[in-house]
Design a protein that fits this description.
There is one protein chain. By secondary structure, the chain is an all-alpha fold. It is built from four helices and no strands. Helix 1 packs antiparallel against helix 4 and helix 3 runs antiparallel to helix 4. The two termini are about 15 Å apart.
Amino acid sequence: MKDYKNLIVWQKAHQLVLAVYEATRSFLKDEQYNLTSQLRRAAASSPTNIAEGCGKFTQIDFARYLQIAQGSAQEGEYLSFRSYELGYIKEDEYKNLNGMVNEVKAMLISLIKKVRKES
């Protein structure tokens, strides 16, 4: 078992969650149970799956949870783009979120490769 809080990728993913929550505060009330909820859940899923994977006993299981985190990051990337296209977030805010999610995705890819090699 690993301490997920020591993983830089988890720290970056957690910071992304906080940024997404901040960005979605101004979304229309009509979107509260749709896009707002969906984007927040996608963002939160990445660090959650990293943390859960750290609690597994095998590297194979850990890699699988990292892959799920990667998929959630990809989903969040699209949802933030959709939010931008709909005019819910400004361009600079979108660029910030997109940069953060791409950093998390790149880190996850590297970690997945490393963990697979070790298994």
